Prior knowledge:
Elements: H1 2-9, H2 24-33, E1 37-39, H3 48-55, E2 60-62, H4 68-71, E3 78-80, H5 86-97, H6 100-114, H7 119-131
Parallel strand pairs: 1-2, 2-3
Amino acid sequence: MREIVKKKIGNEKKIILLDETRDRKEIIKMYQAADIFVLPSFREGLPLTLFEAMAAGLPIVATPVNGIPYEMEDKKNGFLVNYGNDDKFVEKIINLLKNPEKISEISKNNVSKAANYKWDLISKRTLKLYTK
């Protein structure tokens, strides 16, 4: 898949294909360096990357598969685009890049939403559920 992506990027200077990493500090830097988080998945559960992108204040363009539409509201947290609709993905990404006000609005929404998913809050909710 990496080779396919490399070919599609070609000589485009504005797209940077980064190496994969599991280093937490490097991952944080990647989110901070990004303008938009794109998740064109065919299948997902509820990806942690969705919440990481929100916490980084990134607008999201993702497919509405499995848990994603339960946590991401179209136009509020970014845009939902059906899997395989590459033209619509391009349209939404370019629309965001041309609209810094929308990026700012979505960024605030996402940082606020992500605050509800801090691990200490999740553990308290889980413990409360178990104690019931």
